[in-house]
Design goal:
Helix 1 crosses helix 2. By secondary structure, this protein is an alpha+beta fold. A hairpin with a 3-residue loop joins strand 1 and strand 2. The protein has three helices and two strands. The chain has one domain. It has a two-stranded antiparallel ribbon.
């Protein structure tokens, strides 16, 4: 472990960048790996990019969960489909061949 003084730049609500002085104990090996993976020139840049990636990934997870809930609601509102899906595929293929 090493002590590292970090200046982090994060987006806050209204789009303002806010720098805060932080004194953190971090694993140097993890910092070096993050720096290499994120192609960062400095440790501070690696920390900033890593935090930004975590924030973006959480936003994507939230959007996916919201989309899946909507898909499930739509599917449930349709109810159970009684027809044979294989028959439906056969009819669709027949229509395609007739229209060509």
């Amino acid at each position: 472990m090493m002590y590292m003084i970090v200046y982090l730049c994060t987006l806050i609500g209204g789009g303002m960048n806010m720098l805060k002085y932080k004194h953190l104990r971090l694993d140097q090996g993890k910092i070096e790996r993050a720096k290499k993976i994120l192609k960062a020139k400095t440790e501070t840049e690696a920390m900033d990019k890593a935090l930004e990636r975590v924030i973006q990934e959480e936003g994507e997870r939230f959007r996916r969960r919201k989309l899946m809930k909507r898909i499930i609601q739509l599917r449930n509102s349709l109810g159970k489909i009684q027809e044979d899906s294989a028959e439906w595929v056969r009819l669709a293929r027949k229509e395609r061949t007739l229209s060509v």
